[in-house]
């Protein structure tokens, strides 16, 4: 007599509670990012996010509690996204080459198909008029970005690909500011050519950082 087979298990039955929770939170984060990029944070409610994700308002409240907590989670997610992309794209590049590649990558992500690559620009633009706690979340993102750029510049100075007298912190601030301003323009003006913008940023960075030949 044939041994009876066990009934097929549904895919959901094989997932742990932690996995289901993580997937649920990821759907909510994805919906949040999409809506914020489409219409801004101020016009996005937790109820909107629930509807987009196919979840209840109560679940969104349970996961995030408030908009400030939601923004913190989105920034964490965007930070991981950028860090992974930077490690992959920069690879073995160092010094000036790494700075140039990072600048190109940043604008590629802002102009790319995944809204997680530009949500921080939208949040940054709205943070100016909001509470100190929300501004602080954006300031922390900027500090991490500037610190990363500063590290690349310092490596370039050490290896000789970047001039030794460059003011590291001020230059990192200028580069991040130029990238952020260009990113804002890309979001509001669909007619801007990405390649041209990247070329201009590249020339600005090269003119400021590359080692200058000795006079005479």
TrEMBL record:
This is TetR/AcrR family transcriptional regulator. The lineage of its organism: Bacteria, Bacillati, Actinomycetota, Actinomycetes, Propionibacteriales. Residues 22-82 form the HTH tetR-type domain. Residues 45-64 bind DNA. Residues 7-23 have a biased composition (Basic and acidic residues). Coiled coil: none annotated. Residues 1-23 are annotated as: Disordered. InterPro entries: DNA-bd_HTH_TetR-type_CS (IPR023772), Homeodomain-like_sf (IPR009057), HTH-type_TetR-like_transc_reg (IPR050109), HTH_TetR (IPR001647), KstR2_TetR_C (IPR041490), Tet_transcr_reg_TetR-rel_C_sf (IPR036271). Keywords: DNA-binding, Transcription, Transcription regulation. GO terms for molecular function: DNA-binding transcription factor activity; transcription cis-regulatory region binding. It comes from Nocardioides marmoriginsengisoli. Pfam families: TetR_C_24 (PF17932), TetR_N (PF00440). PROSITE patterns: HTH_TETR_1, HTH_TETR_2.
């Amino acid at each position: 007599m044939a041994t009876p087979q066990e009934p097929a298990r549904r895919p959901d039955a094989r997932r742990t509670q932690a996995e289901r929770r993580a997937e649920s939170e990821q759907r909510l984060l994805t919906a949040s990012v999409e809506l914020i990029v489409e219409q801004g944070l101020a016009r996005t409610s937790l109820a909107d996010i629930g509807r987009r994700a196919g979840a209840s308002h109560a679940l969104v409240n349970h996961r995030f509690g408030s908009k400030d907590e939601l923004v913190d989670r989105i920034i964490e997610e965007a930070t991981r996204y950028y860090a992974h992309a930077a490690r992959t794209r920069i690879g073995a590049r160092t010094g000036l080459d790494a700075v140039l590649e990072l600048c190109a990558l940043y604008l590629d992500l802002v102009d790319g198909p995944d809204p997680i690559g530009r949500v921080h620009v939208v949040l940054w633009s709205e943070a100016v008029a909001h509470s100190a706690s929300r501004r602080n979340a954006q300031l922390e993102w900027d500090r991490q970005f500037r610190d990363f750029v500063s590290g690349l510049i310092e490596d370039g100075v050490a290896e000789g690909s970047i001039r030794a007298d460059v003011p590291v912190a001020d230059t990192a601030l200028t580069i991040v500011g130029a990238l952020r301003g260009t990113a804002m323009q890309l979001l509001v003006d669909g007619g801007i050519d990405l390649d041209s913008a990247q070329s201009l940023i590249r020339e600005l960075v090269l003119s400021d950082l590359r080692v200058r030949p000795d006079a005479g």
